[in-house]
Amino acid sequence: MVDYYTLAKTIDALVEGEDDAVALMATVACEVHHADDRFDWTGFYRVVGPELLKIGPYQGGHGCLTIPFSRGVCGASARLEQVQLVPDVEAFPGHIACASSTRSELVLPVWDGSGRLIAVFDIDSDQADAFTTEDAERLAAILTAVFGRV
């Protein structure tokens, strides 16, 4: 299980004074990915146009390059601007299988300081039902702290 207190303090120290969104995404993806063995793929999909996500900084194997808001778990998170906690990706209508090993997924919307959706933060696991509401809440708090300065 993640020590979210230490993770938040570490990320805060690493990003102090930084306001470049891509640099922040790279740092968050790296730190979160290495915080827990449940996290098989960890990264950002950036909002690059109307209803369109493109891959951003990530850790793990290859991800999908482009995801429309109308498809998959990441698209649903962006479209609805809500956390998507999916215990079984096979049961999620329209799931996009970027990696065949993914069994469960947690996707969180990311807003900048003005409240504009700039990305979604996607964590995949090769374990079924790997994520909890505590994971979602703690990671959402970290994302707000980091990207609220952008």
Low-pLDDT parts are none
Q: Can you tell me the CATH topology?
A: Beta-Lactamase
Task: Indicate the CATH class.
Answer: Alpha Beta
* Total beta-strand segments: 6
How does this model look, in words?
The protein is α+β, with helices and mostly antiparallel strands. A 6-stranded antiparallel sheet has the order 3-2-1-6-5-4, with helices on both faces. The protein is 33% helix and 27% strand. 34% of the residues are buried. The model has no long low-confidence stretch (mean pLDDT 95). It is globular and about 40 Å long. It contains 4 helices and 6 strands, in the order H-H-E-E-E-H-E-E-E-H. It has helices at residues 4-15, 21-33, 72-80, 133-147, and strands spanning 41-49, 52-59, 66-68, 84-86, 104-111, 117-125. It starts with a helix and ends with a helix. The chain has a single domain, classed as 2-Layer Sandwich (Beta-Lactamase). The longest helix is centred in the last third of the chain and has 15 residues, at 133-147.
Features:
six-stranded antiparallel beta sheet; single chain; 27% strand; 150 residues; GAF domain-containing protein; alpha+beta; Beta-Lactamase; globular
State the gist of this model.
The protein is of the alpha+beta class.
